[in-house]
Q: What sequence folds into this?
């Protein structure tokens, strides 16, 4: 059959679109032939439908450093407080910096919540103290350094496929062996080239990086198989059926943290779990069906884990940047800003100079 039967499950995406996106969440660089075989579609139908979603900015495949690679650098979560009327401009400035993974405008307690990454603690300190804190419009920056990533957003799934379909796609998913050491300049260039289109063919990647086709294919395979790069299919959030984002800060006993995180990671609402420094020691990022679901989620977590002490829970008003892509107000991709913790390495100058000029 050429299309799945049934009415649209989510406005703008029908069941076939959701199935294709789910298939690419499991195996982001799988061939259209394989995806078509798994879904009962022709390769041409799958490619045509996917091309339409990408053109509309509703879905895309990108590539960033894997959670394993990010664990080898320094991650932090910044609460940025802005002068009245300056939040939007500061948010866009930070979103256009390659050291930010995500930028969100939130409803209370702080104006912006920013996930930043730098090659080491001194570089992170310079970024926060010498650059972010001095941006025009910024009043205060509170920082919590990530000490462990328990769950990353690339593990979140639409759940539009059966277990059998996912298993058929699994051989095409990128493997993960031993993480390589320091990335070479060529590895770095390839990682940045993949950010704009994680499904780009080897020939195109070779042209972008100036390497030979053979070297690019070999390098891509090595990065993927070593677990240094994470390919991920992103979908405009308001089309997923989970349109509401929240952030939850909690305190949990150290001895119970692993057990609690293992159980929270099985909840479909939970996208990210990170251990952090500070008065709270766990940050939970969620996608929910509605704002009412936020309280329901709190109650279910606390009922299951009485030792889980919730310190703060905020609603995200707008996601400005997610995993290297600036988004519009509906969560559609707008502008690619590849994540690059090493952007200022050896340069002796900050990456925000040009952006700060735009705010003047």
A:
């Amino acid at each position: 059959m050429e299309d799945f039967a049934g009415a649209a499950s989510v406005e703008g995406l029908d069941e076939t679109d959701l199935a294709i996106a789910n298939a690419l969440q499991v195996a982001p660089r799988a061939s259209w032939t394989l995806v078509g075989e798994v879904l009962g579609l022709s390769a041409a139908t799958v490619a045509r439908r996917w091309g339409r979603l990408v053109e509309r900015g509703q879905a895309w495949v990108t590539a960033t450093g894997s959670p394993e690679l990010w664990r080898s650098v320094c991650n932090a979560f910044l609460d940025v407080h802005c002068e009245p009327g300056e939040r939007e401009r500061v948010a866009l400035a930070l979103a256009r910096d390659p050291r930010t993974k995500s930028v969100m405008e939130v409803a209370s307690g702080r104006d912006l919540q920013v996930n930043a990454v730098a090659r080491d603690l001194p570089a992170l300190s310079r970024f926060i103290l010498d650059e972010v804190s001095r941006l025009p419009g910024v009043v205060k920056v509170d920082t919590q350094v990530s000490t462990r990533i328990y769950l990353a957003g690339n593990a979140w799934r639409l759940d539009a496929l059966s277990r059998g379909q996912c298993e058929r796609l699994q051989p095409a998913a990128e493997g993960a062996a031993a993480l390589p050491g320091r990335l070479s300049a060529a590895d770095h260039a390839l990682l940045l080239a993949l950010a704009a289109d994680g499904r780009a063919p080897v020939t195109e990647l070779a042209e972008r990086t100036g390497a030979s086709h053979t070297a690019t294919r070999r390098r891509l395979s090595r990065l993927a198989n070593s677990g240094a790069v994470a390919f991920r299919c992103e979908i405009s959030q308001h089309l997923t059926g989970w349109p509401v984002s929240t952030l939850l800060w909690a305190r949990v006993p150290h001895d119970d943290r692993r057990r609690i995180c293992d159980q929270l990671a099985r909840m479909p609402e939970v996208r990210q779990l990170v251990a952090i420094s500070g008065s709270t020691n766990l940050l939970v990022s969620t996608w929910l069906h509605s704002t009412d679901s936020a309280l329901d989620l709190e109650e279910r977590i606390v009922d299951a884990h009485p030792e889980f002490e919730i310190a703060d829970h905020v609603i995200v008003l707008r996601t400005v940047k997610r995993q290297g892509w600036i988004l519009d107000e509906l969560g559609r991709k707008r502008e690619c800003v590849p994540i690059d913790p090493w952007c200022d390495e050896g340069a002796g100058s900050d990456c925000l100079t040009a952006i700060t000029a735009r705010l003047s």
Summary: The CA atoms of residues 252 and 258 lie 10 Å apart. The longest helix spans residues 213-226. Residues 15-61+156-186+202-235 form one domain. The two ends are 57 Å apart (CA to CA).
